[in-house]
Amino acid sequence: MKIATYNVNGVNGRLPVLLRWLEETKPDVACLQELKAPDEKFPLAALQALGYNAIWHGQKSWNGVAILAKDREIKELRRGLPGDDEDLQSRYIEAMVDDVVIGCLYLPNGNPAPGPKLDYKLSWFERFTAHAAKLLEYNLPVVLCGDYNVMPTELDVYKPERWVDDALFRPEVRAAFHNLIDQGWTDAIRKLYPKDVIYTFWDYFRNAYGRDAGLRIDHFLLNPLLEPRLKAAGVDKHVRGWEKTSDHGPVWIEIA
């Protein structure tokens, strides 16, 4: 099974790019973030035309997550992250596809930091970590993937000295990520490529893509039942070079 994650940065505005990528790479499952569309504006018909079933959790103008599965049934397990009934931001959706539990997330950015947006990011991270601990109790393979808005180490960011005060790289944010990993999750990209420079995001400014001045902020975390089945992983970096594309590249894993 090939599972991908892709922050599309607007599912309708980038729909031609999304459809082109799906046709080219044909992932069995694709997790999308930053739909920036309310539920009724999700482009289901265009995706169904390519053979994809979908569940989604939309929001007007901001956020939004979805899980697509090609010629497979999707059983929705959860819509929204538990722990705060007043949090209305659409950042998490969870489903089962072929007996694999898949959590798709769009973790808050947190900037400007310090401030209320960083506080929200850290509180969301705490809720997510608590939920992840419960998922580890499942006797099922589990993958948690999406845009974490965290560069875990200096290897994951171009010129890390420029990012020390950014909410994607602040010590407390990186500590929260490593606290999550320490529960027993495996960072799929780092398992296969422990020392390689790999980026998943390139800003639109200053020719970041052309200079390969990127960040690795889109991650796959695998539970102990799924980790031994990991066979391959990578980034479809070339998609970032397409016209009117997202500032993220799709990331993928293959599991046996």
Automatic annotation (TrEMBL):
Its EC number is 3.1.11.2. The keyword Metal-binding applies. The record marks 149 as: Transition state stabilizer. One of its GO terms (biological process) is DNA repair. The active site is at 106, 147 (proton donor/acceptor), 248 (proton acceptor). Mg(2+) binds at residues 7, 34, 147, 149, 247-248. Probably binds two magnesium or manganese ions per subunit. The record marks 248 as: Interaction with DNA substrate. Keywords: Hydrolase, Magnesium, Manganese, Metal-binding. Pfam families: Exo_endo_phos (PF03372). PROSITE patterns: AP_NUCLEASE_F1_4. Residues 4-248 form the Endonuclease/exonuclease/phosphatase domain. Its cofactor is Mg(2+); Mn(2+). The record marks 218 as: Important for catalytic activity. InterPro entries: AP_endonuc_1, Endo/exonu/phosph_ase_sf, Endo/exonuclease/phosphatase, ExoIII-like. GO terms for molecular function: double-stranded DNA 3'-5' DNA exonuclease activity; metal ion binding. Belongs to the DNA repair enzymes AP/ExoA family. This is Exodeoxyribonuclease III. It comes from Pedobacter jejuensis. The lineage of its organism: Bacteria, Pseudomonadati, Bacteroidota, Sphingobacteriia, Sphingobacteriales.
